[in-house]
Amino acid sequence: MSAAPILAVEGLRVGFATEGGLLQAVDGVSFQVNPGEVLAIVGESGSGKSVTAQTIMGLTRSKNARIEGSVRFEGEELVEASDATLRRLRGDRIAMVFQDPMTSFNPVQRIGRQIVEAMEAHRGDLAKGEARTRTIELFEAVGIPEAERRVDDYPHEFSGGMRQRAMIAMALALEPEVLIADEPTTALDVTIQAQILRLLEDLNRERGLATILITHDLGVVAEVADRVLVMYAGKVVEEGTLEEIFYDPQHPYTWGLLGSLTRLDCPRPVRLPQISGVPPSLLELPQGCAFRPRCPHEFDKCTQVPGLEPRLTEAPEHCDRCWLTPEQKRAKRRVAGQIGLEAPAP
Amino acid sequence: MARFIVRRMAGMVIVLFAVSVLVFLVFNVIPNSNPAERLAGKNATPVLVKSIEEEWGFDKSLPEQYVTMMKKVFNGELTSYSPRIPVDERIAEGVPATLSLSIGAGIIWLFFGLLLGYIAAVRAGGKLDKFLTGLSIAGISIPVFLIAPVLIYFLTYKLEIFPSGGYVPFSEEPWEWFTHLILPWVTVAILSIGFYSRVLRSSMLDVMNEEYVRTARAKGLSERQVMTRHVLRNSLVPIVTLFGLDFGATVAGTAIITESFFNIEGVGLYAAESISKLELPPIMGVTLYGAFFVVFVNALVDIAYAYLDPRVRLGAAAR
Questions:
Q1: ipTM of the complex
Q2: Among candidates B270, B286, B266, B235, which has minimal Cα distance to B103?
Q3: If residue A229 lies in a helix (H) or strand (E), which one and from where to where?
Q4: B91-95 long-range contacts, Cβ below 8 Å, gap at least 24?
């Protein structure tokens, strides 16, 4: 990855003023994405991954939102940018695919019309017929059969998988440089999931798109990601390449996620493993490491927040937030011969 | 479509039958409603009352009287008791005035209701929104019998801007028609403007949380495009429902009070007079006309739904 990052996020903090106080949804997140790269952001619900993605596009802006830090797209600062600047980039240079294709299209407008609308918003000079022709081409590119007929259908006439394909077609309409896919396969059948992932992967390779893939599904990550960011309670707890995260995970939370994967190549455990407990409320974060209450390996040092630092001399880009030494980690993460998080002492 | 019309027609027949029976029964349980006694005048002898009852058929059983009356309705022979004037003629005479009043008011309240509701929704939480909320609630709270006299007192008697009442047919004097109707229009519209703006505002705020609105923003549409193309249209369904009911109710009912205040000789005024004189045939005629209108407007509303929401359209075709 020698190319300059197309998108660089630096110390991004997003808080929302609520009745219960300031809810810090994203707390100091930094990462970069290069053209042609797939960056996966993984975490449970409420870890701040979707808010991070939406903040990049300025979709979280509101009276109650407190956004700090920096988001640079091709060197241009977006956090401070005017609404008009963001609007110019949205859909044109940075596009987004949303989680639920069933609710992400306007039910009363024809699908083709909704895609043409995206093109018109940025290319005012585009002729009507041209935008339509382009939409049909896009439909064919994302594998929607009978594209010519289906552009005039309404969203409810499409199946979920087809809608997600149409959603991707819409995101690609103006050939963006960055594609943000927020749980693009979560609402789909497993067979359709694989198709959509393959489609995203092909597009990524063919068009040199920088892709940010947001998901809680490590199976999805394993298939398409180049680099992985693991988020917990608004913070990045581990960052590394796909291999580093899957074969040498450093943070107990990552172990837990990996351990919860159902594996077909090992004997099936009596109970599917899980991480005990629930993510903390963002309004009442525990002191120190946010994962501490759920971590069976916590010790006195954990009451201080560990920094996100490289802790392995052989992998300077692999960072994590855990006080344990690499040796301790390698010993503790083995549960029944696999990587996992052992159940807490009763 | 043919199926839709047939179903609607059947529904209409049932509604009209139920309404007519109800009016007929209510009329017959009102104390002192025996028309023979009033037709006979003061100090009438029982013999005279009896002969009038026989002549008009008031001595027959209620079902028989009902059937006779409905026959007259269908033959267009329904007449008031005294003076004997054909009911259908009076209704036909009043319809232009009542429709002028109702349609004009409907256009005004729809336009201002949507405009103010839209502004309030776009500025939700701001000062303008709070001001409009106060205004709407004031509009909803002021009863017609207060608005009408206040408007007449200040704008007609004090400032002499508007004529005090009456109705001038559009075909005779379009400008006079207009000036005579402004105050009645405003009187009818104020309540609904307040109400509709509240409904549209909350409906729009609901739709703004929909994911497709976020999609629209993510496409890079301007805030105005997002609001008009994606939020507004999806917020109109409750408005259309309300308008169907309210417009029907205005033609059939609200006009009674307003027409009385402004002395507009429409169907409403005719109904008010008939009620005060306990004249069953005109009451029956006017009620059936009103019920017909309500059902008819609601059929139009269903067609409007299909236009607003393609899912309704296909649902009907699939059946």
A1: 0.83
A2: B266
A3: strand A227-232
A4: B91/B267, B91/B270, B91/B285, B91/B286, B91/B289, B93/B265, B94/B265, B94/B266, B94/B267, B94/B268, B94/B269, B94/B270, B95/B266, B95/B267
- Cβ–Cβ < 8 Å for A290, A43: no
Which residue out of A51, A93, A106 would a mutagenesis test of the B interface target, given it has the greatest number of B Cβ atoms within 10 Å? A106
> Does the structure show a pLDDT above 80 at A15?
yes
Question: What are residue B169's phi and psi, to 5 degrees?
Answer: -60, 140
The model's pLDDT over A192-214, given as tens digits with 9 standing for 90+, comes to 888 888 888 888 888 888 999 99
For residues A62 and A57, give the distance between their C-alpha atoms in angstroms, rounded to a whole number: 13
Is A98 within 8 Å of B211 when comparing Cβ atoms?
yes
**B210 interfaces chain A, CB cutoff of 8 Å:** yes
Mean pLDDT of chain A: 88
The residue of chain A with its CA nearest to that of B207 is A106
